[in-house]
């Protein structure tokens, strides 16, 4: 095993992302010592049972003491409080980073609250599942997924290079962009898709003309793929929308216009418009498969659980 990249890494927050980092750091020997802190006694105890770290403390200020790398893995709405709590205990020269799904707001919450003798550079691993908590993590979560690093003009190049090497050692490919651009890109690739999923599942639940038994029974027509996304953590996603307000609202405006155009095409029987769009969108999926960000297996590579007769029936309804 190579020499560890860091003597001590502190993970503040040990949910899906924090615990996946702990696992991959352990399996690849990235840190000599992993210090873990989380808000509740219960999660800390679970992290200990899972043997995710070397030292554990409910106080994040204790966990970051002596750490060369500090990774903040809490919901986006909690960054300011955490930054204020750890600020007096950070080692000179430490790299402080985060894994938040929104970047400009995190910079605003964290940077002014840290001392000048540490480096803060945001990051967002574009990898995840709909599960949360320390049991949900796994060591290959970041494998072949992108991690977006969001340094600013005054960020230290050496710290950036080290952070980049860290994510690459965790299995990710890395890309650099500004926090603001990150928020625009993620609004369309992640935040709006989640909003659509939450909305469609909510609408289905509110429909009076279709029973909930029917919705569940016939969900393979497409609905169930939205339910996976709509099962994502409510706290995390509430915070994402509250903290990426501008980019989400801007993109949502454009989305609503396009949806109205589709509505019009259906009303006027404009099959050409529908066919053209659906052909273009199919190409996008092909490109995602080509770059290895999705499987080409039918049905997302799921093992089919319906009986053959039912499968045929469902396929007809798609
Ligand atoms: P998670 O599994 O729900 O874990 C959240 C962690 O943060 C837990 O340790 C929790 O502590 C702690 N926490 C929750 N609320 C807190 C608060 N108000 N103050 C301090 N600590 C708090 O979350 P996750 O999925 O790992 O997400 C963590 C971060 O990664 C978020 O910023 C999210 O936007 C980002 N992210 C998530 C995904 C994804 O797919 N899930 C992907 C990329 C990035 P207790 O359990 O002790 O309460």
Say which CATH homologous superfamily of the largest domain is assigned: NAD(P)-binding Rossmann-like Domain
CATH fold node name of the largest domain? Rossmann fold
| Terminal-residue CA separation | 51 Å
Number of E-state strands = 9
Hetero ligands: NADP nicotinamide-adenine-dinucleotide phosphate
Largest sheet: 6 strands, parallel
- State the domain count: 2
Q: Portion of residues in helices?
A: 40-55%
Q: Structural class per helix/strand content?
A: alpha/beta
**Percent of residues in beta strands:** 5-15%
Average pLDDT, rounded to a whole number, is 93
Low-confidence stretches: 305-318
CATH class category of the largest domain: Alpha Beta
Radius of gyration: 22 Å
Structural key phrases:
single chain, 318 residues, alpha/beta, Rossmann fold, 6-phosphogluconate dehydrogenase C-terminal fold, 2 domains, 6-stranded parallel beta sheet, 3-stranded mixed beta sheet, 9 strands, globular, disordered C terminus, binds NADP nicotinamide-adenine-dinucleotide phosphate
């Amino acid at each position: 095993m190579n020499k560890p990249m860091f003597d001590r890494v502190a993970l503040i927050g040990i949910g899906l992302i924090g615990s996946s980092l702990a696992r991959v750091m352990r399996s690849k020997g990235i840190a000599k010592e992993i210090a873990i802190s989380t808000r509740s006694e219960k999660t800390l105890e679970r992290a200990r049972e899972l043997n995710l770290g070397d030292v554990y403390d409910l106080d994040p200020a204790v966990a970051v003491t002596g750490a060369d790398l500090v990774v903040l893995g809490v919901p986006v709405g909690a960054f300011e409080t955490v930054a204020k709590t750890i600020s007096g205990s950070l080692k000179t020269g430490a790299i402080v980073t985060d894994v938040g799904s929104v970047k400009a707001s995190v910079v605003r919450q964290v940077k002014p609250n840290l001392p000048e003798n540490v480096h803060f550079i945001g990051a967002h691993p574009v990898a995840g599942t709909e599960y949360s908590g320390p049991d949900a993590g796994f060591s290959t979560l970041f494998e072949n997924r992108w991690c977006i690093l969001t340094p600013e003009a005054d960020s230290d190049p050496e710290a950036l290079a080290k952070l980049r090497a860290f994510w690459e050692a965790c299995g990710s490919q890395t890309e650099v962009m500004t926090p603001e651009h990150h928020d625009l890109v993620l609004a369309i690739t992640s935040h709006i898709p989640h909003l659509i999923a939450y909305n469609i599942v909510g609408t289905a639940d509110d429909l009076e003309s279709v029973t909930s038994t029917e919705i569940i029974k016939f969900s393979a027509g497409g609905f169930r793929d939205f339910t996976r996304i709509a099962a994502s953590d409510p706290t995390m996603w509430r915070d994402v929308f509250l903290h990426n307000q501008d980019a989400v609202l801007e993109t949502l405006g454009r989305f609503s216009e396009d949806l109205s155009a589709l509505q019009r095409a259906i009303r006027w029987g404009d099959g050409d418009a529908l066919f053209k769009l659906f052909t273009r969108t199919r190409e996008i999926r092909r490109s995602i498969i080509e770059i290895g960000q999705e499987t080409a297996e039918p049905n997302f590579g799921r093992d089919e659980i319906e009986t053959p007769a039912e499968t045929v029936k469902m396929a007809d309804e798609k």
